Amino acid sequence: MTKSLEVQLKTLPTNPGVYQYYDKDGKLLYVGKAKNLKKRVTSYFTKKHEYGKTRVLVKKIANIKHIVVATETDALLLENNLIKKYQPRYNVMLKDDKSYPWICIKNERFPRVFPTRKMIKDGSEYFGPYTSMKTVRTLLDLIKGLYPLRTCNYDLSHEKINAGKYKVCLEYHLGNCLGPCEGYQTIQSYDEQIVAIREIIKGNFKDSLNQFKTQMKAHAEAMEFEQAQKVKEKIEILENYQAKSTIVNPKINNVDVFSIISDESFGYINFLQLSLGSIVRSHTLEIKKKLDETDKELLELAITEIHQRFKTNSKEIYVPFKVEVGENFKVTVPKLGDKKRILDLSLRNAKYFRQERFKQIKLTDPDKHVNRIMSQMQKDLRLSKEPRHIECFDNSNIQGTNPVAACVVFKNGKPSKKEYRHFNIKTVEGPDDFASMEEVVYRRYKRLLDEEEPLPQLIVIDGGKGQLSSALKSLDALELRGKIAIIGIAKRLEEIYYPGDSIPLYLDKKSETLKIIQHLRNEAHRFGITFHRNKRSSSALNSELETIPGIGEKTIVELLKKFKSVKRISAASQEELSAVVGSSRAKKIYDNFQKNKATS
Q1: How many Å is the Cα radius of gyration of the chain?
Q2: CATH class belonging to 3-86
Q3: CATH classification (class only), 384-509
């Protein structure tokens, strides 16, 4: 296996989707679907294959492409579309012209409802496709049991019915049809049934499901257990039935779908090509920004390039916002429904492509990845140096009790946990975050200076202008102002504050710089609050020992030296306690904990 393939395998997503194998000449070899793309595709390269054909396929694979979808059912339908479109050499199944079944509501007076595998453009409504004919039959059985519909293919025009051309058949006498052919049922009554049936097919069959459950109970009470079981199976199928699929929609025909996601350096444009309502191609284009181009400019450039590359003849495009691509195209910005779902699917694939590119760079050239992020942070935060070493401070207290602070350290954008530090607040009384921040920052950098340890290039203060000003006082006292960059981040709107500047900086919410700063802030908060909880818990336990009459500080110290924690002291026997503090005090301690256990 080549190095390139190894990297692709490591960065595949774990979502449902379709994978495509290509040879060194770019020829499509195989299309498959997976519930978990990474697990399924990796298995080709790790298993020992029984069939020689599969072994030959694996040897020929030079490139892997994939399309991420929402569900395994969507993956199954998309796989069917792509195999029928491209006829890959190593696919055997699904190459015939047999397609998945649909349910058709015929465009006619007194419409028929029936299953079909072919779509005819005559104005009829088609629902599906369905991955199981069993689901189709269950739905039609449900509909037939609830609503009597005609099954004949007569032309039930108003004139022919009035002329008495037709006679009711056996279905009428069995109660399966109300006889519209002889005018026994009105068109209004029949159309009301069709409206209800349309809702059932779409998945809105709550009322119908309740009727099925009533039937099942009736069969069970009548001791007709076989019939009850059959109805139960239908209920289970219907409850698991998925009515909507974004992969195939007969109402969407010959459309190109484009979406974009971008960062500071690149734009990633995903293209989905729909033909006869089915997705037949997916491609993601990566464009490097040269002059800070907007998403609109990048998308317009990509649309032109993709149309030239794939020579599509679609006259309509779906995009997330208005673009200028000439008068030859109808531009649609979907807001709701199936069109919006297809656009969301395109955007999902663009996001996954971007994530995989970053993962691949990390694997193949980790230094390049770090250098890019550091350079971007320096640019975004207007720093004189790359922030290779960053430290972030956060205070934790509850109404002034057990005040503590935390300092977390990041090196090259990643946590350096062995350098994290906790601080007990020593000089501040009561809940004073500003004074606490001033004390902690001073102690931290006084120690680094005394020990001649390297200083960070950037300090991040969790808080707004008040906490930032307090930290600056300590830097001034240590004559470090101007030697270390310092910023504050406020939680409400993620504002970045600079010393002496009342107007905050707002970073792009999707920028990597903001994500690293948020990671720093969250780590400092997590580290600080954990220490605070432990201290509070320890304080509560220690105070329990202090409340025992006749037990002083020296006794508590002796006990903690021996048992290490108050929890172990409370679990010790009277004999074990006597060995440390004598029988008299041991009895007092033992009785106290036993009393507490009895009342708790």
Answers
A1: 35
A2: alpha beta
A3: alpha beta
